[in-house]
## 1
Amino acid sequence: MTEPRVALVTGGTGFVGANLVRKLVNDGWDVHAVVRPGSDLSMLADIEQTIQVHVHDGSTEQLIEIVKFASPQIVFHLASLFLAQHAPQDIAPLINSNLLFSTQLVEAMSVNGVRHLINTGTSWQHYENQDYSPVCLYAATKQAFEAVLTYYVDVARLAAVTLQLFDTYGPNDPRAKLFTLLRKTARSGEPLLMSPGEQLIDLVYIDDVLAAYLLAAERLLQNRVGSHEIYAVTSGQPVRLRDLVETYGRITGQTLAVEWGARPYRPREVMLPWNRGTVVPGWEPKVGLAAGIALMEQQSPRLPETIAHMAGG
Ligand SMILES: NC(=O)c1ccc[n+]([C@@H]2O[C@H](COP(=O)([O-])OP(=O)(O)OC[C@H]3O[C@@H](n4cnc5c(N)ncnc54)[C@H](OP(=O)(O)O)[C@@H]3O)[C@@H](O)[C@H]2O)c1
């Protein structure tokens, strides 16, 4: 019998991370999750007994011990603090989560001779389609870690793949993102105040996002990544926000009281998502927007039965 593959995952209590942990477990991997002392494990409740959870105390030394114990073939690094806009008091948490913790992680890998990393970046590193122009400080911290990673790739011989994600969606998403707000609006009937809604949104269904992580993992395990490869996890088919809301309302059969133009656009609003990235070789999104929305909403008991039929298409 072949030994199971071993993964160490950060950010496993978050939306994408919890789905990735569940997928890895279902695919037969031994999974170690690094969490914080106060982490809410509810997203992992159904599989908590089948994985090993390590509570990181914040020190580099203890993270070295965790990585040594887990001895993973691949580290999937998804932990991050996301803030679309920051205030002065956010600087320390942003740097701690996105730069300090990330650097501690690659140091711990390097000390233990663990060579394969999948890092998670953001399309927001590319405002107005530039090679590098951060939409916000969060995106700048993602870029800063990629710069640090270059050191570990060049000097400590790490092999890394960075997946730069766009918008992601799927069932049981606790994040305060668009679909959560639309669901709430539909239920309460309260008007949702929105920007003029002309921006394009690039949404990738969670299963497709996970497929990109798994393909990247295969590239690393087959030693096809010499240094650091960067890929976009993009639908390639961005939709106007107004059309997205219209599609959501149509598929779910709900009336949405949206007041377009009631809010201004954000500073540096992304009107056109980055479209110059390349995707992981062999990867393409399989779940279209309408099917993805239907699949997502099947989880909701208050939605019409017809949605179940649409999800297959
Ligand atoms: N729309 C998108 O989904 C999108 C777009 C672009 C990039 N990304 C990137 O994709 C990744 C996953 O995103 P997500 O939306 O699934 O994240 P999420 O739901 O916001 O979850 C964030 C995760 O990071 C963990 N974390 C934060 N700071 C940490 C620290 N200092 N030490 C250890 N863990 C820490 C959180 O743990 P706690 O439970 O302790 O809070 C949580 O598990 C992130 O790197 C994000 O930047 C996502």
Note: The pocket of NAP is lined by residues 10-11, 13-17, 35-36, 39-40, 78-82, 96-97, 101, 120, 122, 165, 167-168, 175 (CB under 6 Å).
## 2
Amino acid sequence: MKAIRYTKYGSPDVIKVVNETTPEPKEGEYRIRIKATTVTPTDCAVRRAEPAITRLFAGLLRPRDIPGDSIAGVIDAIGEGVTEFAVGDEVYGTSAPKSGAHAEYICLSSESPIVRKPEQLSFDEAAGIGDGAITALPFLRDVAKLQAGQHILINGASGAIGTYAIQLSKNYGAKVTAVCSGKNVQMVKELGADEVVDYTKDDFTKAVSKYDVIFDAVGKSSFKKCKMALTSNGIYMTTVPNLSVMFSAMMTSIVKGKKATFAATGLRKGPEKKKDFLFFNEQIKLNQLKSIIDKTFDFDQFKEAHTYVDKGHKVGNVVIRL
Ligand SMILES: NC(=O)c1ccc[n+]([C@@H]2O[C@H](COP(=O)([O-])OP(=O)(O)OC[C@H]3O[C@@H](n4cnc5c(N)ncnc54)[C@H](OP(=O)(O)O)[C@@H]3O)[C@@H](O)[C@H]2O)c1
């Protein structure tokens, strides 16, 4: 099978398309022929080994494993004891925290967060859900405990996590302010944003006691800057933890009032994520959740896809179509 390997950490030039033995499913495993996957800022960060701590998971001197984790594809072989799926089933989900989705085939255990793909969802769209939506949901539902009528501000609303976060927040009955640049204002409104702040013109952090939740989906702000804009018991959440937010999270956890938080959603257990994908399936069937696809690339264009994602301005998802 064709797969992606990195020869070392660095620029997109380290990406190589290689030929490897196609894996065979063991007992309790199934094999998916991958039809679509995504390239994300996390894939790019692992490729660059930035922050350096990623080396602890990915390999000290050079990356060990085939990268990638979002998956949309077709079950093409079944190991002994697997009853949930049959050959030919169209499925999607994620392999995270394990990687290996940037390949033509992947074998996964039946514990993995993989579910049947609703018919109305294309493989490209499903691959996006396996990244941005599965990240946004636990922040909104479990960390913020977002309630109907609350006001949430989503920074980076035009990105993969942001575009799903707008829709999920609206589905929870919240009022949504989306922060993006002028070119994406119309798109975020169409996804349901009630108010929009163009970050190239206005600074949302100048607001006073306005938001119950500030979700920085792209990690471009800080708790310190956002504090004034939060209501008295408001929560600041970021997808990109750094020492400053970790310190704020620790300090605010022991006092009443405004909180700073972060989460590493990819590390959640398979069955937990699987329930979330089934929840997404319900929303997709009701037309309440859709994927925004910025660009699609072929398997031989991983380098181009990484170069594009590295720029930090993709709109929704960048998909690799196999
Ligand atoms: N904690 C976790 O569990 C977890 C899980 C997955 C991913 N992540 C991290 O989450 C982050 C976001 O991922 P993503 O895929 O959603 O990112 P993304 O799609 O690459 O975000 C790009 C979007 O962000 C917007 N943007 C860039 N700078 C901005 C700014 N200063 N203010 C507001 N918007 C800005 C861009 O709009 P313009 O073109 O208008 O600038 C663009 O549409 C990544 O760093 C990723 O590593 C964390």
Note: Residues 40-42, 45, 132, 135, 155-156, 158-162, 179-181, 184, 199, 217-220, 239-240, 263-266, 312-315 surround NAP (CB under 6 Å).
## 3
Amino acid sequence: MVIDFHTHILPGIDDGSRDTGMTEAMLREEKRQGVELVVATPHFYANRTSIDAFLSRREAALEKTERVRREAAEALPEIMTGAEVYYFQGMGRADGVSRLVVGDTRTLLLEMPFEQWKDGMLTDVEDLIRKQKLNIVLAHIERYWEFQRDRRVWNRVFDLPLTPQINAGSFIKKRGLFHSDKKRRFCMDFLAEHPRLIVGSDCHNMEGRVPNMAGARAAIETELGAGALKDIEKTTREALGL
Ligand SMILES: [Fe+2]
């Protein structure tokens, strides 16, 4: 089963899909690429909104999306809801974080700061896992790498029992003279070394940040073989309790 674990597909809730028309187009594109289940993970920033307010807005956006699915001419992928929770200091011991998990699992998609990671961040992630008993999926890990001049915290974070997620687009070869292949190489090497990994499109729209699971799957299969895809599917299913 092909699952897109990281998307901004719900309409009008964050910087992702603008309206139900775009949500429908994104769902149709997901389906065309063989995706059967889409996890909707709108951004959650603790300094901008309360968990209650976020969850009620997400519920309203989900209702609109379910109406789109019911009224569509073709069967569109199923939706599960979660959140992409941006790191905040002290979140390891904060109340209510576990309300932001995906569906009725203990799985939380965590977005880390785009800066040099510090010891306090490691402690928080550790507390989320050990004290709050959450299964942490670290969103698009390839986007933090360039900030880790000191790799000490980075290395210790990946020693924790958590699941890294990489964006589909980071596996796809970009055309044109000026695209460096460095990030793609990092992702392929990381996957080869950590086969327990999740891929998500992190799609936001139908223009620049589109659903692109099929391209990533083709690239991974070419470089690392069908077994790598099977491992990713298994890890993703496990994270969702499926
Ligand atoms: Fe995202």
Note: The chain has a mean pLDDT of 97.
## 4
Amino acid sequence: MELEFYGATGGVTGSCHIIRNGEYQILIDCGLIQGRRKEEEANREPFPFDLDKIDAVVLSHAHIDHSGRTPLLVKRGFRGPIYTQNATRDLCAVLLRDSASLAERDAKYQNKKRAKKGLEPIESLYTEADAIKAWEHMEGMPYREKRQILPGISIRYQDAGHILGACMVEIWLTEGSVTRKIVFSGDIGQYDTPILNDPTTIEEADLVLMESTYGNRLHRDRQQTIEEIGEVISRAGAEHGNILIPAFSIGRSQELLYLMGTNYDEWGLDRWQIFLDSPMAIEASHIYWDYPHLYDEEATKLRSQINEMPHLRNLKLTHAVEESMQINEIRSGAIIIAGSGMCNGGRIIHHLKHNITRRECHVMIVGYQANGTLGRRLVNREKEVKIHGEFYDVNAQIHTVGGLSAHADQNELLQWAGGFINKPKVFVVHGDPEVKQEFSQLLHEKLQLVASVPKAGDIVDLSQI
Ligand SMILES: [Zn+2]
Ligand SMILES: [Zn+2]
């Protein structure tokens, strides 16, 4: 029995690990590598394992950096089951189709450039048909149910509190008289986050694979964050402007709507029109709505009092492009939640064009902005930005609200790791290289755990741990 590290060891994205037990092999996650074009080219390379020998895939959650290469697996011939939590399966239907359409558009764009240089066209990484096929291979499971998926291999999903359906995976391997238990953390959520339960404490494991995205950072206090959002709303109201919120469709948008619902009076929202201007976020919101049994206590209580979606009186869900364009006519009193989360595409771009030169308008940044994106330029307070080839003065007021992360911070990661009673060995994955090193050191100092940072291609003999 062995474990081989493959993706999310170099950086954050492309989560993928292989477990071999007897004659069976499973993949844990099969995520897309995301980043600069050069890095993303790695997605096109052949898998460094024999696809025919993979018997099953076990997914932790729907985010593309964990699930985004499953359509590629299927395109290249994988025919086995892909296990996921039930809600993850539903969210994957939305996310994988979107990922496919981005890949198809990207191939088209690249082929235009290639044609000019006389180069052969490239194929789209995968198509919507591949995404649908991958989704058809997905087998949903509930939380907390142990299931044997192959001879000698059983799994159980536990709530990770990160996005709806996100899991930590407990994996039991048995070969002859040897049994080992491995825990894969997936992405770990924050404690006391809106809607979702806290990350599940797991007390026993022989080996833990643990994410470390924010292993070097502390998030701002939640109450302070709520006050910050309230202040932006009241200022924008006094100045008669609009508020734009670039937000990721899955997780962040639902969290914002929920916070608006629970702080409705404090934030004076009855004076505003609120728009969820993203077909994907609308679809994801319906999925969130359909899984009330996965909510935490507070959200369950709220959900039991309201039977209809949307739960905000003045929320408009705008599907059609024409409806979205009509929002551009509104000069004040609109809160517009639209994607993409980093302003590198999507409907938010059009709203920025119409509002960014106006001093009375406000842009609320609620998520991580990668280098090179328009969102990052706004966060950096650039005075002028280029949108669709034209320059716009940034007169609108930019606010960075830092407390809404879907990831546990350093203290919360330590809290989760501290839940293991039997002091298992820990491999730190899914983080920037220096963060993984720092966090691995911290696990040793604070919790006396033996922790290390694996490289892609490292193999661990599980019978020896
Ligand atoms: Zn995630
Ligand atoms: Zn992730």
Note: The longest strand covers residues 167-175.
